[in-house]
Design goal:
This protein has 287 residues and is an alpha/beta fold. It is built from 8 helices and 13 strands. The radius of gyration is 19 Å and the shape is globular.
């Protein structure tokens, strides 16, 4: 656990995603949770030694299983955006995993299968503000990676936790994404409004302005290529051919090649089907 400012921490040693925590006089806010139940309980115990006040809350920055499976082991009330709460309703009561590989972290940990989902208790639409005796904590809606993606923003300390908005040197998760909206979110993050901020990605830790620009270029490349593919025959084969050249744009250890290829394969096919094939079906129905 590393301190970013007084009573504001991040943790990058657990499976799943990179975590944050705020321990102000009024209470403790956990930003996402570890994937594995035993790690979640360890993280909870570590924060109890730092905690102050009586309130205990978790905020999850989107619906991804890597950041939501551990909620059950901590058993604090959960804050999410309205759209993330709606996505929970699509899930079965118990997590059974998937037969299709998605390139997610949870796939390395079969013990998470059988976890019962802990559903949200508090939702918001645009911004939720916590006043716990220290600087204001804002939980803000910033869609793109998912429709309910959120950030935790602490303006006084110029710190922001951005979830999956930027994944440095690894492919982003795009299966549930809106790439046009995501692009606008990255424009905001790279603007003067967040100049000199400490920016923490849920996948990559500390993020620079160059990382944000590279993410924006990568997503623009995906968007342009998929638009081209949508006008061709053999669309699924064309999508598969995109994967090696997209991965060449990223700098990562060679042992992750298969894992990241699978992440892109799943994400590109899901995004394309949702964005282009559904539109095509609807257009045919209208005709």
């Amino acid at each position: 656990m590393q301190a970013l400012a007084e009573n504001i921490y991040y943790q990058d040693s657990y499976a799943g995603v990179i975590l944050g925590a705020v321990t102000f006089p009024g209470g403790t806010l956990l930003i996402d949770t570890p994937l594995r139940a035993e790690d979640a309980r360890t993280w909870k115990a570590a924060l109890l030694t730092q905690s102050r006040g009586t309130h205990r809350l978790i905020t999850v920055l989107d619906i991804h299983a890597d950041r939501t499976l551990g909620n059950r082991a901590i058993e604090y009330p959960i804050i999410t955006h309205n759209n993330t709460a709606l996505a929970y309703k699509e899930r079965t009561t118990i997590f059974k995993g998937q037969h299709i590989k998605t390139g997610a972290e949870w796939e390395h940990y079969p013990e998470v299968n059988g976890t019962r989902w802990e559903r949200p208790n508090i939702t918001f639409s645009t911004t939720l503000s916590l006043q716990w005796g220290g600087p204001e904590i804002r939980i803000e809606h910033h869609p793109g990676p998912t429709s309910g993606a959120s950030w935790v923003h602490i303006p006084e300390h110029r710190i922001v936790f951005i979830g999956d908005a930027v994944c440095n040197n690894q492919p982003p998760f795009i299966a549930r994404a809106d790439l046009d909206v995501w692009h606008e979110t990255l424009n905001l993050l790279s603007s003067r409004a967040f100049a000199d901020y400490t920016i923490i990605s849920g996948r990559s830790g500390f993020i620079t302005i160059d990382d944000i620009r590279e993410q924006r270029k990568f997503l623009k490349s995906i968007s342009g290529r998929l638009e081209t593919v949508s006008k061709r025959k053999n669309q699924m084969e064309e999508i598969d051919k995109m994967i090696p050249s997209l991965l060449e744009k990223l700098d990562y250890p060679p042992e992750f090649n298969e894992f990241y290829s699978q992440r892109l394969y799943y994400g590109l096919h899901e995004y394309f089907a949702r964005t282009y094939l559904q539109d095509s079906i609807l257009n045919e129905a209208e005709e």
